[in-house]
Amino acid sequence: MIKRAWSRAAALAGGTAAVLAMTAVTAAPAQAAYWGNWHILAYSDQCLDGSVSQGVRLNSCNGGSHQTWTKFGGYYGQIKHYQSGKCLDGSVSQGVRLKNCNGGSYQQWYPADNGDIVHYQSGKCLDGSVSQGVRLKDCNLGVYQGWW
């Protein structure tokens, strides 16, 4: 069963540059998700992985710098990729990608109470599957949107 709960208090407390450190996945999660630890897609134990050359994708969790992200800003904030220094940027037409950080609405994200990660500009959720990739889709409480 996928545990999809966010701690709003933790999200607010972690709003100042909380580092999303990579941890090995050995069993089902025993804790609620929060801004400081959301990068693993719960249904597949795949991690959010990014590079300038290969884009944003899901990959086997390995603890590398390609899977380390920093959230900064307030409740609505940017998510910075450690390895490239670029920000997670989303658009319905262009997809989810890494772009130079600019503070614009395409780079603003927030945690929903149900465990989804919502893109501020579009109102759509961060959605990922190994076969379809990482993208923005209507929020649907589905397993492809269950980050922890």
What secondary-structure arrangement, pairings included, does this model have?
Blueprint: H1 8-13, E1 18-20, E2 40-41, E3 46-51, E4 55-60, E5 69-73, E6 77-81, E7 87-91, E8 95-99, E9 109-111, E10 117-119, E11 125-129, E12 133-137
Antiparallel strand pairs: 1-5, 2-3, 3-4, 5-6, 7-8, 9-10, 11-12
Protein name: Alpha-galactosidase
Signal peptide: 1-32
Keywords: Signal
From the structure above, extract its key features:
148 residues; mainly beta; Trefoil (Acidic Fibroblast Growth Factor, subunit A); three-stranded antiparallel β-sheet; 1 helix; 36% strand
Q: Could you characterize the architecture of this molecule?
A:
It comes from Streptomyces aidingensis. This protein has one helix at residues 8-13; strands at residues 18-20, 40-41, 46-51, 55-60, 69-73, 77-81, 87-91, 95-99, 109-111, 117-119, 125-129, 133-137. The protein is mainly beta and 148 residues long. It has a single domain (8-23, 31-100, 114-123, 133-145), classed as Trefoil (Acidic Fibroblast Growth Factor, subunit A). Strands 1-5-6 form a three-stranded antiparallel sheet, with no helix packed on it. It has a three-stranded antiparallel sheet with strand order 2-3-4, with no helix packed on it. A hairpin with a 4-residue loop joins strand 2 (40-41) and strand 3. The model is unreliable at 1-34 (pLDDT under 50).
